[in-house]
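Q: What does the predicted 3D structure of Methyltransferase, FkbM family look like?
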Amino acid sequence: MDNINDFRSELLKEDLYNINAKKYAEKIKNIGKVVIWGSGNGGQLVYNFLKKFDALENIKYYADNSKVKWGTKKNSLLVISPEEVVQEVKESSHICIILASQYLADIKKQLLSLGIEENIIDIKGFGLAKDYWTFKERTPYEIINSHMNDYEKVYSYLSDQRSKKVYLGILNSKISLDNEYLEGVADSEEDQYFDKDIIHLNENEVFCDCGSYNGDTLETFITLSDNKYKKYIAIEADKDIYGELNKRVEDNGYKNVETYNIACWNRKKVLKFQSAQTAGHVTENGDFSVQADTLNNILKDEEVSFLKMDIEGAEEMALKGASRVVGEIKPILAICLYHSLKDYYKLPLIIKNLNFEYKLFIRHYTDMVDTETVCYAIPNSRI
């Protein structure tokens, strides 16, 4: 079966966005007691979703692993400890625990270890609520169908069956608001950016880390490379996080590391930036200004061999500003796709347009949650 027919036959053909949202809310209404595990942003997303569908009546508590939150209230609901959740389960015959965190796989393991039965642990609500609030104007089904040829083209470019399974699984989970399509899709989060089946580091790597955060990827790279590399270029737009990055470099005595407090873009200009820890991003409503420039300029004297991007939705602009780097130098690329559904077709097609030689692979690194999806582009010389 050819790629396009395979793609069309496996892609969901019904818009299930509103159908499954209502069905889930009705299910929650019929449960005697509900605990939302996670009192942060994830818990708020779930709460807001259930409120929209008038399904708050049976929500009794938040739960959290953070001790400082125990005994506090959120949305007038008491935040309880894991031990108190166990007690609630013992006393209730009809209870559900909605895991409202991208770390739901780890939390599920924790709850199972506490003796809580799997059938009362809900791993669907968080992803459903997150995507429900993401797509306000057009459903994922409508977006995908309006760009069907582009998604098909990306699918046809993917170089292995694993990539195709990941790609279809994520698109179907979006269309259906059901993370059952992510079952078996994730690889170990420890392999992110350095997937052993795809990436083979050498001693001459010049690694450019766009969205370097506080140096977490730097630390992983140095460990995996056994401290044998040529240069590491860390680029971080958030001025406070940039300070943390430099402190980590200094404290650990890392050598041959250059850091830049700059945003990657398609031209040189000043942008507004919103600080948000791991999700800081360029936005017109940002709380401070940051200088932006192209990677063609920033890396003008560098023979970059590996280029990674996780820059919260600015990947399209940054890739367009890296036309020379990608087209002529041809580094390995590890580009995050998950910030926008449209990025799942836009970014791979930009890469192929800049350099058709690249072989494309897609891998995913959060179990049952559609975040941390990476498109790898490998030049023939590094296959």
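A (community wiki): The structure tokens above were generated from the sequence. The radius of gyration is 22 Å. The CA atoms of residues 73 and 114 lie 24 Å apart.
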